[in-house]
Specification:
Blueprint lengths: L10 E2 L1 E4 L13 E6 L2 H6 L3 H12 L2 E2 H8 L3 H13 L3 E9 L2 E8 L1 E6 L1 H5 L3 H17 L6 E2 L2 H25 L9 H16 L1 H13 E2 L1
Parallel strand pairs: 3-7
Antiparallel strand pairs: 1-2, 2-7, 4-6, 5-6, 8-9
Helix pairs in contact: 3-4, 6-7, 7-8, 7-9
Length: 219
């Protein structure tokens, strides 16, 4: 699948998968973050069906047949995706239930948020870099839709790329160092966002980056 198909699925400042669930949902024993540092595993997130499966398995344990019914896909296809996701460590087998001669397997997501490491972008293959460049250009164009004026679009694209790299690196470092038992959704993700901005603000280089953005973006 082309990397430009990723844009609506796995990229939100840092690359991550999110799903919307009720705020009072009981999340169970999922870890908060799973940082993906294997390029081959990261590529699995480019598939729309796999992203849908991961989002559903964040909400509750499900079997192959349940997922197939919800997604309106053949059970054999869903079973293949589940095997691939399990082998990659993105989902876990939770139970097996026998129904006559059939064994039904149930799965859950391994984490609430999957974060593709910023380090993969630095050594990414050309197709991924091309997709990144297109993303930054699209963001630069979209800014004007919010009523902002841009004096130097080429420079803006470069600054967006630098901002994205800064934020992803800081967020990943925070996620790697936090005690998982201290994280309580949904507050934990908001907290991580706040701490990310606090850490970014400490950096003189980051503050200069913000000043440069302000110099070419006005409203």
């Amino acid at each position: 699948m082309p990397y430009d198909d990723l844009s609506s699925k796995v990229y939100i400042l840092h690359i991550t998968i999110n799903c919307n669930v009720p705020i009072n949902w009981k999340w169970g024993n999922l870890r908060e973050f799973l940082i993906i540092k294997d390029a081959e595993v990261a590529k699995l997130l480019a598939d729309e069906t796999r992203c849908q499966i991961l989002n559903l398995l964040k909400i509750k344990e499900m079997s192959t047949n349940q997922l197939a019914k919800i997604l309106d896909k053949p059970a054999s296809s869903i079973d293949h995706h589940l095997k691939v996701l399990k082998a990659a460590g993105l989902i876990e087998l939770t139970s097996e239930r026998r129904r006559g001669n059939i064994i039904e397997r149930f799965y859950k997501a391994s984490a609430r948020h999957y974060i593709v490491s910023y380090s993969l972008t630095e050594k990414a293959e050309s197709s991924f870099k091309d997709w990144n460049e297109k993303l930054f250009e699209d963001v630069a164009l979209l800014i004007q839709s919010f009523g902002y004026n841009i004096s130097d679009r080429s420079k803006l694209t470069r600054l967006i790329e630098e901002f994205n790299a800064f934020k992803r690196m800081v967020f990943e470092n925070l996620a790697s160092s936090v005690n998982p038992s201290a994280l309580k959704p949904p507050a934990s993700f908001l907290l991580m966002d706040i701490l990310t901005h606090l850490e970014l603000y400490k950096s003189e280089k980051y503050r200069k980056l913000m000043d440069e953005l302000l110099s070419i973006v006005s409203r």
